[in-house]
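User: My collaborator sent over this chain with a note saying "see what the structure looks like." That's all I know about it. Can you take a look?
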Amino acid sequence: MNAVTIVILAGILGGLCWFLVPFALRQRAERRLAALCKAKRAIVLTYDDGPGATLTPQLLDLLSESGVHATFFVLGQNAKAAPDLVRRLVQEGHEVGSHTYDHTNAWKVSPIRAARDVDAGVATVAKLGGDRNLFRPPYGKLTLAGLIAGLRRGFRYGWWTLDSRDSWDRRPMAEVLADLKAQGGGVVLMHDLDEYKDTTGDLSHIDYVLQLTTKLIALAKSDGYQVMRLGDLDAKAGKA
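Assistant: Without extra context I'll predict from the sequence alone. Here is the result:
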Protein backbone atom coordinates (compact mmCIF):
# COMPACT_ATOMS: atom_id res chain seq x y z
CA MET A 1 0.00 0.00 0.00
CA ASN A 2 1.60 3.25 -1.11
CA ALA A 3 1.62 6.58 0.75
CA VAL A 4 -1.10 8.15 -1.41
CA THR A 5 -3.47 5.26 -0.70
CA ILE A 6 -2.76 5.47 3.01
CA VAL A 7 -3.50 9.21 3.02
CA ILE A 8 -6.75 8.66 1.11
CA LEU A 9 -7.88 5.88 3.44
CA ALA A 10 -6.96 7.98 6.47
CA GLY A 11 -9.00 10.86 5.09
CA ILE A 12 -12.02 8.63 4.49
CA LEU A 13 -11.77 7.13 7.98
CA GLY A 14 -11.40 10.57 9.52
CA GLY A 15 -14.42 11.85 7.63
CA LEU A 16 -16.53 8.92 8.74
CA CYS A 17 -15.53 9.47 12.37
CA TRP A 18 -16.25 13.19 12.05
CA PHE A 19 -19.91 12.58 11.22
CA LEU A 20 -20.75 8.98 12.13
CA VAL A 21 -19.48 8.86 15.72
CA PRO A 22 -21.81 11.67 16.88
CA PHE A 23 -24.64 10.20 14.81
CA ALA A 24 -24.20 6.75 16.38
CA LEU A 25 -24.13 8.22 19.88
CA ARG A 26 -27.24 10.22 19.10
CA GLN A 27 -29.04 7.05 17.99
CA ARG A 28 -28.08 5.35 21.24
CA ALA A 29 -29.28 8.32 23.29
CA GLU A 30 -32.61 8.38 21.43
CA ARG A 31 -33.16 4.69 22.07
CA ARG A 32 -32.56 5.33 25.74
CA LEU A 33 -34.99 8.24 25.70
CA ALA A 34 -37.63 6.05 24.08
CA ALA A 35 -37.12 3.36 26.71
CA LEU A 36 -37.41 5.89 29.54
CA CYS A 37 -40.59 7.36 28.09
CA LYS A 38 -42.13 3.92 27.73
CA ALA A 39 -41.13 2.88 31.25
CA LYS A 40 -42.51 6.08 32.79
CA ARG A 41 -45.41 6.49 30.36
CA ALA A 42 -44.10 9.96 29.68
CA ILE A 43 -44.83 12.53 27.00
CA VAL A 44 -42.30 15.32 26.70
CA LEU A 45 -43.41 18.38 24.73
CA THR A 46 -40.46 20.19 23.15
CA TYR A 47 -40.41 23.31 20.99
CA ASP A 48 -37.57 24.72 18.86
CA ASP A 49 -36.65 28.00 17.16
CA GLY A 50 -38.69 30.41 19.27
CA PRO A 51 -39.78 32.41 20.94
CA GLY A 52 -42.41 33.47 18.43
CA ALA A 53 -44.14 36.78 19.11
CA THR A 54 -47.61 35.34 18.44
CA LEU A 55 -47.36 31.58 18.99
CA THR A 56 -45.28 31.42 22.17
CA PRO A 57 -47.64 33.52 24.35
CA GLN A 58 -50.63 31.48 23.17
CA LEU A 59 -48.74 28.27 23.78
CA LEU A 60 -47.80 29.41 27.27
CA ASP A 61 -51.43 30.21 28.05
CA LEU A 62 -52.45 26.75 26.82
CA LEU A 63 -49.80 24.97 28.88
CA SER A 64 -50.69 27.01 31.96
CA GLU A 65 -54.41 26.27 31.61
CA SER A 66 -53.60 22.57 31.22
CA GLY A 67 -51.25 22.54 34.22
CA VAL A 68 -48.30 21.04 32.32
CA HIS A 69 -44.74 22.08 31.59
CA ALA A 70 -42.62 21.74 28.46
CA THR A 71 -39.06 22.15 27.22
CA PHE A 72 -38.12 25.00 24.88
CA PHE A 73 -34.95 25.25 22.81
CA VAL A 74 -34.73 28.91 21.89
CA LEU A 75 -32.66 30.57 19.19
CA GLY A 76 -30.37 33.24 20.58
CA GLN A 77 -31.38 35.82 17.99
CA ASN A 78 -35.08 35.34 18.76
CA ALA A 79 -34.49 35.27 22.50
CA LYS A 80 -32.55 38.53 22.27
CA ALA A 81 -35.44 40.12 20.35
CA ALA A 82 -38.02 38.95 22.91
CA PRO A 83 -36.28 38.61 26.29
CA ASP A 84 -39.49 39.04 28.27
CA LEU A 85 -40.95 35.95 26.60
CA VAL A 86 -37.92 33.89 27.57
CA ARG A 87 -38.13 35.16 31.13
CA ARG A 88 -41.80 34.21 31.16
CA LEU A 89 -40.89 30.70 30.04
CA VAL A 90 -38.51 30.39 32.97
CA GLN A 91 -40.84 32.03 35.50
CA GLU A 92 -43.69 29.69 34.59
CA GLY A 93 -41.57 26.63 35.23
CA HIS A 94 -40.70 25.55 31.73
CA GLU A 95 -37.29 24.20 30.83
CA VAL A 96 -35.30 26.50 28.54
CA GLY A 97 -32.24 25.35 26.62
CA SER A 98 -30.24 26.65 23.68
CA HIS A 99 -30.65 25.91 19.98
CA THR A 100 -27.60 28.03 18.98
CA TYR A 101 -27.82 31.71 18.09
CA ASP A 102 -28.76 31.62 14.39
CA HIS A 103 -29.45 27.94 13.64
CA THR A 104 -26.16 27.01 12.00
CA ASN A 105 -25.94 23.49 10.56
CA ALA A 106 -22.70 22.10 12.01
CA TRP A 107 -22.29 19.74 9.05
CA LYS A 108 -22.11 22.64 6.59
CA VAL A 109 -19.81 25.16 8.27
CA SER A 110 -16.34 25.22 9.78
CA PRO A 111 -15.87 23.96 13.35
CA ILE A 112 -14.93 27.48 14.45
CA ARG A 113 -18.11 29.02 13.06
CA ALA A 114 -20.25 26.26 14.54
CA ALA A 115 -18.61 26.69 17.95
CA ARG A 116 -19.16 30.44 17.90
CA ASP A 117 -22.84 29.97 17.11
CA VAL A 118 -23.21 27.49 19.96
CA ASP A 119 -21.39 29.81 22.38
CA ALA A 120 -23.49 32.83 21.44
CA GLY A 121 -26.73 30.90 21.85
CA VAL A 122 -25.74 29.44 25.21
CA ALA A 123 -24.64 32.85 26.52
CA THR A 124 -27.96 34.42 25.51
CA VAL A 125 -30.01 31.67 27.14
CA ALA A 126 -27.98 31.77 30.35
CA LYS A 127 -28.30 35.56 30.59
CA LEU A 128 -32.09 35.24 30.50
CA GLY A 129 -32.25 32.53 33.16
CA GLY A 130 -32.22 29.40 31.00
CA ASP A 131 -30.09 26.28 31.36
CA ARG A 132 -26.64 26.80 29.85
CA ASN A 133 -26.04 23.03 29.76
CA LEU A 134 -29.18 22.02 27.87
CA PHE A 135 -28.59 22.06 24.12
CA ARG A 136 -30.35 20.83 21.00
CA PRO A 137 -28.25 21.00 17.81
CA PRO A 138 -30.03 22.50 14.78
CA TYR A 139 -31.25 19.71 12.47
CA GLY A 140 -29.87 17.27 15.06
CA LYS A 141 -26.45 17.62 13.42
CA LEU A 142 -23.21 17.29 15.40
CA THR A 143 -19.61 16.79 14.36
CA LEU A 144 -16.97 15.01 16.40
CA ALA A 145 -15.45 18.36 17.38
CA GLY A 146 -18.81 19.68 18.54
CA LEU A 147 -19.56 16.51 20.46
CA ILE A 148 -16.24 16.58 22.30
CA ALA A 149 -16.63 20.27 23.11
CA GLY A 150 -20.15 19.68 24.38
CA LEU A 151 -19.16 16.76 26.57
CA ARG A 152 -16.36 18.82 28.08
CA ARG A 153 -18.87 21.53 28.96
CA GLY A 154 -21.33 19.08 30.45
CA PHE A 155 -24.02 19.52 27.81
CA ARG A 156 -27.23 17.55 28.03
CA TYR A 157 -28.34 17.00 24.45
CA GLY A 158 -32.04 17.46 23.87
CA TRP A 159 -32.76 14.71 21.39
CA TRP A 160 -36.25 13.58 20.46
CA THR A 161 -38.05 10.35 19.59
CA LEU A 162 -40.97 11.64 17.50
CA ASP A 163 -40.83 14.43 14.90
CA SER A 164 -44.12 16.14 14.05
CA ARG A 165 -42.39 17.72 11.03
CA ASP A 166 -44.48 20.82 11.70
CA SER A 167 -41.82 23.13 10.24
CA TRP A 168 -41.33 21.47 6.85
CA ASP A 169 -43.64 18.60 5.86
CA ARG A 170 -46.12 18.34 8.65
CA ARG A 171 -47.60 15.00 9.55
CA PRO A 172 -51.33 14.49 10.12
CA MET A 173 -52.06 14.92 13.81
CA ALA A 174 -53.79 11.54 14.00
CA GLU A 175 -50.60 9.92 12.71
CA VAL A 176 -48.46 11.65 15.33
CA LEU A 177 -50.82 10.55 18.09
CA ALA A 178 -50.96 6.98 16.80
CA ASP A 179 -47.16 6.73 16.67
CA LEU A 180 -46.88 8.12 20.17
CA LYS A 181 -49.32 5.52 21.50
CA ALA A 182 -47.49 2.77 19.64
CA GLN A 183 -44.21 3.86 21.23
CA GLY A 184 -45.76 4.06 24.68
CA GLY A 185 -44.82 7.72 25.06
CA GLY A 186 -42.02 9.85 23.67
CA VAL A 187 -40.25 13.15 23.25
CA VAL A 188 -42.18 15.14 20.64
CA LEU A 189 -40.44 17.71 18.44
CA MET A 190 -42.41 20.84 17.52
CA HIS A 191 -41.53 24.49 16.80
CA ASP A 192 -42.83 27.70 18.37
CA LEU A 193 -41.60 30.20 15.80
CA ASP A 194 -44.67 31.83 14.27
CA GLU A 195 -44.43 30.81 10.63
CA TYR A 196 -42.47 28.65 8.18
CA LYS A 197 -42.52 29.11 4.43
CA ASP A 198 -42.41 25.46 3.46
CA THR A 199 -45.20 23.93 5.56
CA THR A 200 -48.20 22.27 3.94
CA GLY A 201 -51.84 21.82 4.90
CA ASP A 202 -54.92 23.91 5.52
CA LEU A 203 -53.93 25.10 8.98
CA SER A 204 -51.43 27.84 9.70
CA HIS A 205 -48.33 26.78 11.56
CA ILE A 206 -49.61 28.47 14.70
CA ASP A 207 -52.93 26.65 14.60
CA TYR A 208 -51.28 23.32 13.85
CA VAL A 209 -48.93 23.55 16.84
CA LEU A 210 -51.63 24.73 19.23
CA GLN A 211 -54.04 22.02 18.11
CA LEU A 212 -51.43 19.27 18.21
CA THR A 213 -50.32 20.36 21.67
CA THR A 214 -53.92 20.31 22.85
CA LYS A 215 -54.41 16.80 21.45
CA LEU A 216 -51.19 15.53 23.02
CA ILE A 217 -52.21 16.84 26.42
CA ALA A 218 -55.68 15.32 26.02
CA LEU A 219 -54.13 11.97 25.06
CA ALA A 220 -51.95 12.07 28.17
CA LYS A 221 -54.95 12.66 30.40
CA SER A 222 -57.17 10.05 28.74
CA ASP A 223 -54.55 7.31 28.48
CA GLY A 224 -52.64 7.82 31.71
CA TYR A 225 -49.42 9.41 30.44
CA GLN A 226 -47.40 11.98 32.35
CA VAL A 227 -46.52 15.23 30.60
CA MET A 228 -43.11 16.32 31.80
CA ARG A 229 -40.03 18.32 30.92
CA LEU A 230 -37.03 16.61 29.39
CA GLY A 231 -34.96 17.16 32.52
CA ASP A 232 -37.68 15.57 34.65
CA LEU A 233 -37.53 12.44 32.51
CA ASP A 234 -33.91 11.86 33.39
CA ALA A 235 -31.20 14.43 34.03
CA LYS A 236 -28.74 12.24 32.14
CA ALA A 237 -30.99 11.06 29.35
CA GLY A 238 -29.76 13.51 26.76
CA LYS A 239 -26.06 12.87 27.25
CA ALA A 240 -24.51 11.33 24.14
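A starting point for your reply to your collaborator: The first strand starts at residue 42 and ends at 48.
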